[in-house]
Amino acid sequence: MNSGSENQKNRSSAATTGYGVAIDVGTSSIWSRLIELGSERVLDTYVVPNPQQRHGADITSRLGLASGDAGARAALHAEVISTMNSSIERLCADAGIPTGQVREITAVGNSAMYAFMLDLDATPLCGTPFNLKGARDFYGPAAELGVNPPGANLFIPKPVFGFVGADALADILLVGMADSDEIELIVDVGTNCEMALGYREKILVASSPAGPAYEDTHMSFGLSATEGAIYKATLAGERFDCSVVGNGEPRGICGSGLIDIIAEMRRHGWVDEGGRLLREGPVVIADDADPITVSQHDIRSFQLVKASVHAAISVLQKKFGSDQLGRMLITGTFGSYINLDNARTLKMFPDLPNDRIEVVADAACQGAVLMLGEEHRLSLAGVHAKIRHVALPLNKNFQDEFIRLMAI
Q: What is the reported pLDDT for 335?
């Protein structure tokens, strides 16, 4: 698996002057990266919460809102464009660069975010076959979508298929899967989980209904990986020692923290293989004035998400005809903090040694850098030609694998 920096060194930009900005519009967070086009040098990376979260933490809530209310659809579009603009302005200001010197902008996202960026009718994503028919790459002056600077070239790649968006394509580019001699796996875990399995001959992709993605309102004290989130935890005797984003008072538990907590409870016999809590619950994780707890319901919710994601991977491997893996990339909202040993305890992913697993928080943003410039935009057709989409709801093995993988 090639690192992002290695791929960037192999990339020769058609534009040799000015600057480029690559953006990954995620459901929870929006990542942006500023590079110098001539030297390929990364100047800065910036991440902010997606303001659309006020309309719903998950994709389904926002899609339903946009489909039934023209004003809500307009607001969702305006919010993402405004955040893209403020991110570009912040990156340029911090680097001491006039915004007008940005020549190239690439923005990737899942299928829903693609629709919101382009202000398209997202209703087809609300029902079978969950696909934006007629979706195509957007390429033109940034002014056409209200993005600044208006004279920059703006490229927004179309989704691959269904809920597998161009963010998955960016992940594939980052690891160099289309040129790899060994089979590689990408798991992008967010509010929608996308995965890709393949090598230079063929690539299979799918998306899994990851639901709460380990951290939203389905959890008693779910919180994204922002200030106040417990992101790491160990069990010492009868109490949990916790690390909190920002080092302040805990306000909730993010995905990596929940993985640690359940793995520790499983390891110490507080939870059995079937996920049954063997102690009187809910279990107190942080004992403040308003205690933060994990309940039996939270453990079951985790199992549902975990089983859905791992079952999707298993189906791809069966479809591929091999369970051999060279390397695995884990990315998404909790990519910075996940403890691989605890993930292995809970059987979250295929069992690989840690030295064959790479964890990258912003893989899609790094991959989007590799789409900056006309030469690289046009070369994507060759990668697309190797990709095949697997519809999980239609696969007879998915439910069997889902049930099998509920165990922790």
A: 64
